[in-house]
Each structure stands twice: as C-alpha cells, then as structure tokens.
Amino acid sequence: MERSSSPNVPNGKKKRQSEAPSAQEVVKRRKTEEEGVEDLQRRPCGPAKVSVHLDRLQQPITVAQLMELLHFAALGKSRGIKQPSWCRLRHQKKVNGINVAIVDGVTQSLFYNHYLSMEHLRSSYTTRITFTPSSDDVASDIFSLEVPKVDSSSVAPPEEALHEALKDHPVITTYGTQKKGLTAYLLSRQQMIKYRYPVKGLPGFEDFLCTGSDDRVTDDSPLYGLDCEMCQTLKGNELTRVSLVDGDGNCLLDDLVKPQNHVVNYLTRFSGITAAMLKPVTTMLRDVQAKIKTLLPEDAVLVGHSLNNDLKALKLIHRHVIDTALLYRREHGQKFKLKVLAKAVLKRRIQTEDQKGHNPTEDAVAALDLAWYFIGMGPLQVVELHLEELWGWSLEDSPSSTSESTQNYRFADVLQSLNRSVIYLGKRSNVDLDPSFQRWYRSDKEMLSSFRNQTSHFFLSVLRFSSVSAHLNGSYVHCHHQQQLRHDVSSVFQDMCTVFAGPFPANFSKSQVRQLFGCCGPVHKVRMCNTGVRIHAKVQFQMLEGAMLALQVLNGFSVSGQTIKVQRPVKESMLDLDLNLDTLMGDRVNANQLYVSRLTQDVAGGLNVSAAVNGHLSDGKPPGFHPGKQTNGQLQTAKVNGKQLRPGTFAPDLSEESLKEAFSPFGSIKSITLPGTHAKHALIEFESSDGKQAARGSSEDLLKKGYPTWPSMTPPHLRSWVGMATSRETEDKDEDEDEDEERSDSFNCGGTQRNQEVSLLNKLDRRLSKLFNSLPDGTLSVVLLLEHNSRGFDHPGLCFLEVKNGKEHIQEKPTSRKSPENS
C-alpha cells in the first residue's frame, strides 16, 4: 500500500476537480484519434449476438462468406474489418473466442430426416442456414483464407513486426499487443491467491465478509476505485480511513474508522491520521463493510493499487478486481509506486511532500484513472508512450524485422501475430496449418475429451468429427442414400404442408379453391380429385403455417351451401406429425417469429360463398377468424343464413406500415418480412419471445381485424431448400397431370440402417452438446454439416451459428396446440 501526505478528509474531492480534467482530456483525445467519436468509457451493451435477416436465409452461404463473419468476429471494425455482407454480429467486442465444429457425412437432408433426434443442434442455435463449401478442405480454408488487406495503421503489428526489445516486455508478454475490454485485466482466482488476496474458502479468511459479487461481469461492468489508510495496533495493521469512488471519480464514501484494538502507531507520516482525529469517531469496521456492500452492485469491479492490502484491512472478499500495481508491471515482480505512475501517465502530482499523509480519495481516483487509461489505450500503446519514462528502455533506430510488404495476412497467422492461439483437432489430414498447431486423434471421443480437458481455451479452435462419415460410408452406398434422403425430406415436408378438402359443389374450380385457401397463406399447388360422386381438392401450401390455419379456419366452411371438411393426408409419414409440429414450434430459429396472414375482399368476393359460424350469426359485425370455427367476414357477395353482408373495410394487401400499427403494441418488432409486392402473408420477428406470446394471447382480437396468426414453424431457410426439389416443375403442367401419390417415406429407410443412423446421430448430438457446454461464454460457436457432392448431385450442408451466452440458452416451451377436432 503506498503512503502519502494529506491531513484533511475533504481535500480529495477538491484535488479531483482541479487536476483531473487535464488527464482526462489527454486520454479522451488519444481515444478519439484512434476510434473517431467513440468516448473513452463507452462500452457495447448486452452480449454478442449473430443474426441473419429472414430474406437472406433463403440463400446458401459459402466458405468465403462464413470467413467474413469469422474475420469480423476476431478482429472487428477497430482493425478495419467490415460487418459481413450476409449477416450481422452485434457487440463484436464481446466475442472472446471462435470454435468451429466440422461434421463429415451429415448433410442437411440427414439432419432433417432425424430432426427429432438432434435435440442439441435444433435447440441451442438461433441461426441455421444452408452451407455450400467450394472445396472439400474446409478446415484448411478457415486457417488459410486471407484477411482483407487493410490500412496497416489500423492493424496492430504482428509479433514478428515488433521490435525485438518489446517482445520480452513484461506488459506485452502478459497482455499481448491487442486492445481489450476491462474483463481481460481482471485477476483470476489463481492470481489472487498468488498475490495474497483474500479468497473465499482459503484459511485465514473465515471471518471476512463477501460483497456478494457474481460472475456476470462484462466489459460494461462499472469500475469503482478503492483506497484505505491503516495504523498499527497490538493485533497488527487495522483500518483507520477508507475511500470509495465511482467510475467518474465521484466520492461515494470517505470515512474515518475506529480500530478495534489499542493503537501503537498511527503511521501519521503516511496515513495522515492522528489520535485527535480518531477520538470522536464511532464508526467501526462492520459499519463501513455494510456501507461498501450496499454501494457496490453485483457486477462491480474494484480498482486499486496493491488492492490486496486494502481488502485485508477491510476484511472484505471481492471476486473481481483490477490491480494497477500489476497492470503496469515491471520485471522480476517489482512494482511501481502509485505516485510514479500518476506523474508519468496522468501528468498528475499526488502524495507530495507538502501534504501531511496520503489522501485515500485522491489515491483511489488516481488508480481508477490509470486503469481507464490502460484499457482505453491498450497495452502496446501504453508501453510505446511510456517505455523510457517508466521502464527505462530505449529502442534502436534499426527498422522493424518484418516489412509491411511481406506481412502475411492468412487468418491463422494474423491471429498468432496478435498472441491469439489457434488449434486444429481431428483425424490425421493435410490441413494447411503448421503441424505444431495440430493434434490428431483416432476417434471423436478421444478428440473431444482432450479438448475439454485443456487448462486454457484457444481463441480459434477447429474440431473435425469424422465418426459418422466413417460408419455410414462403410455400411451402404452413400451417394444413393443421400439422394433418397433428399427426396424423403422434401416429400415429408410437402405432406406436412398438404391438406385435403371437400366435398365442393360440382362447378367449383381449381382457381376458386386456390383463392379460398389463399387466405391462410401462399398455396404451392392445387389438384382437384373427382371420386365420381363428389369433388375434393388436394391443397399444398408453401409453408406449414398455411396448412395449420386451413385446418383451424376452413374446416366446416360453407361453400355455396356445401359444408367442406379439411383434413390431413393419412399416411405413414404423418405418424409423428403432432410431435414434429410441437418440436418445430419450440425450435430456437422460430422462437421470436409470428406468422400472419390476411383474409381479403378479393379472395372472398370472387367465390360467391355463404358463411356460417357453427350455426351462429355474426350479429352483423365485421367478423374475423375463430379457431375451430369457420369464417364469415369481409365477403363482398357473401350471405349468412340468407342475409347479405356488407363489404368489409380490410385492405387487400399486407404492408409493413399496417403490420407495425397492428403488432407493435405487443412488443418491439425486429423485422417484418413480406414476400413479394402483394404479399398475403408475412413473418414478424419480435425482439423477444414476450412480444410473440403477447400477440398470440390476443389472437382473437387480431382475428377480428382480419389477421390470422400462428407461431412460426417452418425453419426459415428450409423453404427455399425444399423448393429446389420441385424447381424444375411447371406448376400448371403438374396440376393437369396425374401424380403418383406413393412416395418414399423418410421413416422407412430400412430398419437396421435407420437404427444405426439414429444411434450414430444421437451420439454425435450429445458430443456436440458437450463441446458447446465446455466453451466459455462469449465464444462464437459454428457447426458445419458438410454437403455431399457425387455423380452430379448436390446435397447441401448446413451451418449453425450461435454466440454462447450462458443463461440465454434456455429452451422455451412451445405453445400448446388445439387440434381442429377438439376446438
């Protein structure tokens, strides 16, 4: 603990007002020169998150596009890297690592064919997009693809480009050259033990009070400066004065404290405390402990100079601390005095000879400003600016060992130049990475166990899982099976989007069926079925939600006096339909999204239908949808029990403005996706699931306004992927041709073979879950299911993206559904 000279308790605040501004201006000016208008203490709010707009999810990504994200996640705007063109990563500075899991032999088809079995992949990742790599060696591409060459002034010099004298500097060897957030400078538990800090659970600190700090400390957490003065008693050093300041240097606490034991030396020369000053004091240690515990929020970070001595005097245990005596470290464990650092770095004089003792408020502010300065400037610039003044080092005039023209911009090399470790783990392969950074394993189990047992996590880690591919390729012809899987998944998805309806009047046409069912969502195709006695129709929607609304809305609808029944196809692929639909509603990619459709005058007016709501009249009010009943509203020429209905006032098309007006009262809207100019359905993405649930809770009111809603169920990227299977078909021709209704069922691919697949994929999913859980918070987790290409057939892969943020990964329970039969 450093000692100084100030007799008066209130002087600290005055000193702060008269001397601090000049130092703050220096820090802010340098910060502004580096990052424009960004303020020194400005920090990103909230955890890092990656998102893809719903429209963009319809297009696959390549390795090059994936690397746009990885480059930005690792380096950010401060190093000249732009946001990816296809997605958005918010709060990039919160990303503290990247983990990529490459899975061989599991395509998008195989994932959706075993969708219910892949619980971790479908529940832990909020972003899922089709992945089509341009080469078979994705691991090599990740390490070797070059980072965009930017202005060298915006990129911290690689380790090889540093002057030889700086490579062994104690600050550089400890913190590297990269500017980091405040969490990078917190002392770990091991460091606190090493430097004799009070640590919970260790002997000698049983009677110490814990402040209640938790582990939710981020780069946004508040800093508090702390400093104490002590005297010597019969029991050793005891507290006589304590000062606490907030992140802006404002004094929150400055109290004299009466020691519990007899004082033998007031240490007035250093503490400024005298017997006369303490005589009237009644404040005891327990009183200031209670005050400090009340003043500090749970995520507070305490800053001080040799702070371990202060916490011992206070008999406090606080988990998150920054010690400026260790931040500005010297060789061989030596430490700078606080007044030396204040003079050299802050250009501020403290603990001067004319003062009678130290002023703890002044010292707490100095330590706080030193911490802000170090965090704002970064370790490299701190060393360069104060190298000779503080450390007494001088650099030769010889040029840097590596010229800018020969610098390597490969991703792995750039990370290593910034003291960020990289590693490849997997089977023996020709990965374009130095062999010293590769670890080869014979099995996925061995690889995963080794990675999880690492004492320190690597910044960029790539793990390749090959067991599934080895087993599947050895058991049957993989290419043929992939083609069958692709067909099966498309077939089952189309079955889930299909309803049968009827009977219809004899003169009811295909276009009228399309108009009628179009109120529930976009119709892919309609096929009229004439049994010889009555006419029915097979209606296939583009999305699952359309089929669900058709079952709820149009079952029991009266068409020209003929009541129709809407039902699902009865076939083997539908045996697990309810389970699949419930799981899809709980899928994280659909968590905040709501499907919205609209009944328009054009749809109803062109059909000349009459409506009845389970035999009840609509009381002449503009009616809406009622789940389990049938619709009787907005019909230009409709009749209800022989009474003419007046035309409704609903707009024929959905618009972003009308949807915002109707749905923004339920919660903040993140995006609205309207496919096409005259869209008749939309996807609304709320900022949180609360908005979606509030809208669902008001579904009856929304239906009266002509907005039928349903929780999103169709995986956003899957619509275009399934569409590839039918893209060569001309819809009108298909509707006029006979179709073969017997299709291969995805759950009928051979008992032994399917059981083997289920076992392998369950095991893979569990291993990926263990990998994800072992990653520290703030890690960008990427899972790549690689596409399979053989004999001219492309079988797309799949990319899962998520920034792990601990408490956020709680699976929401899906909204319960009412079957049409029970409505």
Quickly describe the structure:
With 823 residues, this protein is of the alpha+beta class. Strand 6 and strand 7 form a beta hairpin.
Set down the secondary structure blueprint.
Blueprint: H1 11-35, E1 49-51, H2 63-75, E2 88-90, E3 97-103, H3 108-113, H4 119-124, E4 127-131, H5 138-144, H6 164-167, H7 170-175, H8 189-194, E5 209-210, E6 223-233, E7 236-245, E8 251-256, E9 263-265, H9 268-271, H10 275-278, H11 285-295, E10 301-304, H12 307-314, E11 316-317, E12 321-323, H13 324-327, H14 338-345, H15 360-377, H16 379-391, H17 411-417, E13 422-426, E14 438-440, H18 444-452, E15 460-465, H19 467-475, H20 478-496, E16 498-504, H21 510-517, E17 523-530, E18 535-541, H22 544-553, E19 558-559, E20 562-563, E21 565-567, H23 577-585, E22 593-597, H24 601-605, E23 639-640, E24 643-644, H25 656-663, E25 669-673, E26 681-686, H26 689-697, H27 699-704, E27 709-711, H28 718-725, H29 731-736, H30 751-774, E28 779-785, E29 788-790, E30 793-795, E31 797-803
Parallel strand pairs: 3-15, 3-28, 5-11, 6-10, 10-12, 13-14, 13-15
Antiparallel strand pairs: 1-2, 4-31, 6-7, 6-9, 7-8, 16-18, 16-21, 17-18, 19-20, 22-26, 22-27, 23-24, 25-26, 28-31, 29-30
Helix pairs in contact: 1-15, 14-15, 15-16, 18-30, 19-30
